[in-house]
Amino acid sequence: MQGARLWLTALALALGIFMQVLDLTIANVSLPTIAGNLGASTDQSTWIITSFVVANGVCVPLTGWLMHRYGVVRTFTVSVALFTLASLLCGLAWSLESLVAFRTLQGLVSGPMIPGTQALMISIFPRERRATALALWSVTSLVAPICGPLLGGYISDNFHWGWIFLINVPVGAVVAFVCWQALRDRETPRHKLSIDAVGLGLLVVWAGALQLMLDRGKNADWFDSGWIVALAAIAFAGFCVFLLWETTEEHPVTDLSLFKSRNFALGTLVFCLGNGVFLANMLVLPLWLQTQLGYTATWAGLVSAPTGVVSVLLTPLAARAMGKTDARLIASGAFLASAASYYLRSGLTADASFIAIAVPLMVQGIANAGFFIATISILLDGVPPERIPMASGLSNFARIILSGFAVSLVTTLWDRREALHQSRLAEVASGVAFHDALSALGRLGLSDLAGAAVIARGMEGQAYLLASVDVFTLSMWICLALAGLVWLCHRALPAAAG
């Protein structure tokens, strides 16, 4: 494929992944608005997120089987069409129950979209221009989660919340039409593979239980809750039985033999851990800005914008470098840049300016420009073309699972470190220091009660600042470790940008 047809198809594929990734984050900041409109509590409204994540996580690993059975183009196009229909239903939902049901449907049918765009983007470009395909894929994957909260907040503040889903309808219709028209004559061979019903059932059980545990664990105080313990036991037992079954099944639902390749195994681990750290910090920083520094949802989204802007500008340069440079070097450089970003963030203060917060995020944009291209090139190196859909589905499934772990662990760590720091600050501030501060506030006209509230609020703000610094510091050390781990992979074959 060449010329205008190539770039029109590539743009349509990029819009396809943009929609799917956007829907992972666009509803987050809109939950209070949706809950109020539908007469539900904020806690109940979190099922809008949970239902989508769990359904999507269960369906992604089926991508390889679906594409072998029905063809890559047909599977992807039908997935986009059904996702568009589910988005329409979400926007027209009349109750929380109906919205959760439609979000579950949306998550189920969108499973093949991310692996499908990755496989098709690689297939329409020649081998020597694979870096260009991965650059387009990575830009949309990085920009969409940044745009999600910003777009969701703006729509909720100015329009009916249903438009956060309805905006997918015209885009999805165009993507499905263009991709089918451009790619239907390039359909991959279909094979009448029998469905591994037992493996599929085990996958649904353990992956669903794990996703529910990770998503609901924090609110249920983790293993102090009986049903969280039960979900963990189901997930662990189901995963063990799933591994035993899949390694002996003739036609497994997931091809675990891919992990025999060092590059696929280590590349997937590095890809998932790096992405998990990035997403977890993307969640913590806006929370800190909105709850402690007084940022609105819109401004919290704007402060993250430099990450996306820098990534878009530098990704084409990273794609060109892939033709001349070892992918491990680019990946290692990306992790070192991420470590530098987290180091800069660890120096933030409670009165940090917008620019002081935005600069480290610009450095993160430099890291992201090379991260996806390099790590995906490494993990797909040596994978035969006919196995790329399965490899893509499996690596993205692992990414979803490990991202869930990262987000749950980091948010829990953030809250618990805040409680620890606040208790230590309370010990230091007790006694003479507390009464001196109270007296000083009294001379400014505050009553003892109001003065105590001001001191308590200041201590809480400092505790959350210290907890955020702890998260940033831990993230820095993880990125430094990943910068070294990537060198355990074999050197990937170069792929020029073309």
Describe the largest sheet.
none
Q: For this structure, what is the CATH class of the largest domain? A: Mainly Alpha
CATH architecture of the largest domain: Up-down Bundle
User: How much of the sequence is in beta strands?
Assistant: under 5%
Explain what you see:
The chain is mostly helical. The protein has helices at 3-25, 31-38, 42-45, 47-59, 63-70, 72-91, 96-109, 113-124, 130-158, 163-166, 168-183, 197-216, 226-246, 262-292, 297-321, 327-345, 354-380, 388-429, 432-443, 448-485. It folds into two domains: 1-195, Growth Hormone, Chain: A, CATH 1.20.1250; 258-498, Growth Hormone, Chain: A (Up-down Bundle), CATH 1.20.1250. 78% of the residues lie in helices and 0% in strands. Helix 8 packs across helix 18 and helix 14 runs antiparallel to helix 15. It starts with a helix and ends in a 13-residue tail after the last helix.
Secondary structure: elements and pairs:
Blueprint: H1 3-25, H2 31-38, H3 42-45, H4 47-59, H5 63-70, H6 72-91, H7 96-109, H8 113-124, H9 130-158, H10 163-166, H11 168-183, H12 197-216, H13 226-246, H14 262-292, H15 297-321, H16 327-345, H17 354-380, H18 388-429, H19 432-443, H20 448-485
Tags for this model:
498 residues, mainly alpha, Growth Hormone, Chain: A, 2 domains, 20 helices, 78% helix, 0% strand, globular
Summarize the structure in short:
The chain has helices at residues 3-25, 31-38, 42-45, 47-59, 63-70, 72-91, 96-109, 113-124, 130-158, 163-166, 168-183, 197-216, 226-246, 262-292, 297-321, 327-345, 354-380, 388-429, 432-443, 448-485. The protein is built from 20 helices and no strands.
